[in-house]
Specification:
This protein is an alpha+beta fold. It is built from two helices and eight strands, in the order H-H-E-E-E-E-E-E-E-E. The strands form two sheets. It has a four-stranded antiparallel β-sheet with strand order 1-3-6-5, with no helix packed on it. A four-stranded mixed β-sheet has the order 2-8-7-4, with no helix packed on it. The protein is rod-shaped.
Length: 140
């Protein structure tokens, strides 16, 4: 009979300890571990620009912003952007998907400028533009 009592106590203890276990909660690990950079498109191209293609009345000292469909490999930008007719020296930089350019001095009044991105500009995922890509704007 003592053996039966020990068995009952063991069973009772086993079931009572199960109710003391914390209820499993959904893990936040899947939410907290996100990729820092994602490929937003299967192609690499200009998504938008400011000034926009064909825009008129652009200020003589614009900040030119080009947003790409993917993050840009900064090492491929410097020698692969041109401006025609010849712009004052363009300076700027790249931040993720955005290329920002500023002319070193004022542009010429009433002139249509074409910004060309060379086909060799590359995304961080290894895709290139594939063809030279341009957009134009006209100053005040």
């Amino acid at each position: 009979m003592a053996m039966w009592k020990k068995f009952q106590i063991l069973i009772l203890f086993g079931f009572s300890s199960l109710t003391c276990l914390p209820k499993p909660e959904p893990s936040l690990l899947g939410v907290l571990v996100l990729p820092l950079v994602t490929q937003t498109s299967s192609n690499f191209a200009i998504e938008s620009s400011s000034p926009t293609n064909g825009e008129t009345g652009v200020a003589l000292s614009p900040t030119i912003t080009i947003i790409m469909t993917q993050a840009v490999d900064t090492t491929t930008v410097n020698t692969n952007i041109s401006c025609a007719p010849s712009c004052p020296s363009l300076s700027g930089g790249v931040s993720n998907r955005t290329i920002t350019l500023t002319p070193s001095s004022a542009l010429t009044t009433g002139t249509t400028y074409t910004i060309t991105l060379n086909q060799n500009i590359q995304s961080i995922f290894g895709l290139t533009l594939g063809t030279n890509t341009s957009f134009s704007f006209t100053t005040l």
